[in-house]
Hints:
Layout lengths: L1 H38 L8 E3 L5 E3 L7 E7 L6 H15 L4 E7 L11 H11 L19 H9 L14 E4 L5 E5 L9 H8 L3
Parallel strand pairs: 3-4
Antiparallel strand pairs: 1-2, 3-5, 5-6
Amino acid sequence: MHFFKIANWIALLFLCFSAFYYYQTGQISHSFLLNMAEESPKSIYDFTVKDIRGNDVCLSQYSGKVLLIVNVASKCGFTDSNYKELNVLYDKYKSQGFEILAFPCNQFARQEPGNNEEIQETLCTRFKAEFPIFDKVEVNGKNAAPIYKFLKLKKGGIFGDGIKWNFTKFLVNREGKVVDRYAPTTPPLNIEKDIQNLLGSA
């Protein structure tokens, strides 16, 4: 009889310990998840990137604007037509709060091989680009720029989240939320209606 009382006490202590353990680990997991959620970027404005000259640019400076974010290349078959149409959109809507953010990338057939100075010269002289040009980045793989990891997380592609080629485009609303993604084959002028809707000028 005495043995069963001891066994009951041991079982009770075990249950109490188990309950305490799961409570504590549950609390830790919950706190961990909360911290992760607080630290995770919630919008484009949470990122700081480098411009083509190597200066830090906090994207919160574009708060309240509609953004089109594009990975660009100087030697791609889409280059001429995309820059021509991007310039048209920029000239037409920049006064209404529209910005194009261009990120050179050399991951696709090495079609952006130059250094930042050469890229800037090409874009400004040959293509007459007046919108902001940023530091050359990788958009896929383990070394992908954090902003591109975020963009792909928010708007995946049809055949996986990876960027498929140069001139993939992401449209961001005035609150810094990624609202749409367009394939490299989508001409910029085909996005004009969506830009107008976000600007409120449709």
